[in-house]
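U., I forgot to send this yesterday:
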Amino acid sequence: MSRRVVRQSKFRHVFGQPVKADQMYEDIRVSKVTWDSSFCAVNPKFVAIIVESGGGGAFIVLPLAKTGRVDKNHPLVTGHTAPVLDIDWCPHNDNVIASASEDTTVMVWQIPDYVPVRSITEPVVTLEGHSKRVGIISWHPTARNVLLSAGCDNLVILWNVGTGEMLLALEDMHTDLIYNVGWNRNGSLLVTTCKDKKVRVIDPRKQQIVAERFAPHEGLRPVRAIFTREGHIFTTGFTRMSQRELGLWDPKNFEDPIALQEMDTSNGVLLPFYDPDSSIVYLCGKGDSSIRYFEITDEAPYVHYLNTYSSKEPQRGMGFMPKRGLDVSKCEIARFFKLHERKCEPIVMTVPRKSDLFQDDLYPDTPGPEPALEADEWLSGKDAEPILISLRDGYVPVKNRELKVVKKNILDNKPPPGPRRSHSTCEPDLSPALEEVLEEIRALKEMVQAQEKRISDLENKLCQFANGTD
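Result:
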């Protein structure tokens, strides 16, 4: 008599649970733009959501603790002249976020720890280099201030945000629209998917394609690809019969898949969210009302179905919290921020455990907020693994660190265009007066910022008083 043995896994009983109604973010007009990005970015301090906005593009940034109904006059981050298509928090500074837009620009913003009184309209730096709309942005996982952008001009550009300069432009590699771009763990390679049905592995510094695979999924609809911790590539796509499919590939032997599984029949593109610490991949389809999750191991069939979190409402987008933002005391291994039409609903994934002690096996050391490399070091060919931190005592977000942009003076290396005009001796010397005016402006700015913080603190106290918590 044969007995079926159930595969041993500590993640077999992971379950998802939405938070209570008062811990959701209500009254948010989520963007209706037709674009396959997640529309939401989260870190241990803030949740950012792309919203509907008249006369340009905008997104809203809320402190994680500011749950409940969002005031319709809540300040936005507005600066783009066309809809925002993608946003991404910097992994090395929780107060810095980048946004990409239909207006062909990428903007990088500094978000204060307090809630500003007015909308933020001035980015720290604007990156201009694309000729068509920019739909994808992604920060380098280990190098400071390195940002990738991909546009509908089939161009991938790498920027040094610290100087506002273009580091590299990957031209003539993609013949059609780029669907998605993903870094490997140490940021030495990229994986891209494209409308020409090819998945490419690219070494950006050598500007060459290391490996490519034509049509890993035979369907015509968009394919998504991400690197796993081991260097394999996980893809989602469609079969010829429009069934959704997932695949696991070894880029050193791209012809044969390690695993290929059909899932269901649906139109929504599956967005993969991968946790390298647990090797679990979560699949969220736009328009779906479920999150499926799988564990990737080195045992056949390699991609093991764990479970499905189901709800009634379809999702418009999804945010995924980095590991250092989770509550380790409750054995929380993932937290999603599901976007509805008018609200954002956090969903907590938990491993049931009886003990209240710290669970070492669930929380190995995870990438922290410190970069392992500077932008120049990475560009010169150096690689480094992420700097890891322990979550044993929980993670406390670092206070606001200002992003300083040092623009190199282009006049330094250019000869003067013609003979200099000699200053007349009777012209008054304006420099002391100018210094005085600049000093006064600086003092006024500091005063305004201090007043904004004071108003914000008073508003928070008033809210606590109104809620009867004071």
